[in-house]
Amino acid sequence: MPRHQPVRLDDETLRRVRRHDEHRPGLEILAGPQRPPAIFCATDDQAIGVLRAARELRIDVPGELAVAGFDDVKEAALTDPPLTTIASDRPAMARAAVDLVLDDALRVAGSRRERLKQFPSRLVVRRSCGCG
Per residue in 94-111, pLDDT tens? Predict the structure, then answer.
């Protein structure tokens, strides 16, 4: 199997991405001359847009293209095919973010409190990647 080169999106394409307009970058990638065999998106919204673009271009997911996202939004289970995704503890992430802001506001000059946080994640395998 040939090694695929990463697809790079130009700044203008990246600026156009909106929550409910995620399929345009997907169309550009999938209609291009070097269509990748798989796409992992930073959000489920982006991945759902890629699924829509694939459908418009009559690309079989997962037969010709594997797609995965990150967030495990409720809609991910309802797409066709259902979207493989990474689920994370978003409430814990939000609490940690608030804690960091409050810590910054109350920090004693010179203190060195740990700022790196890690959160468990889990793979939610559904059919869009070809392994569910």
Answer: 988 888 777 766 666 666
Closest CA relative to residue 68, chosen from 89, 90, 96, 42: 42
Q: Which residue has the tokens 């992992």?
A: 40
User: The whole model's pTM is what?
Assistant: 0.75
Helices (H), the chain: 11-16, 23-31, 44-56, 90-106
Q: Are 83 and 77 in contact (CB under 8 A)?
A: yes
- How many Cβ atoms are within 10 Å of 109's Cβ, its own excluded? 4
Contacts of 61 (CB under 8 A, 6+ apart): 51, 54, 55, 67, 81, 128
Can you read off the two tokens belonging to residue 97? 């973010």
- Cα 124 off chain centre by: 13
Residue type, 99: D
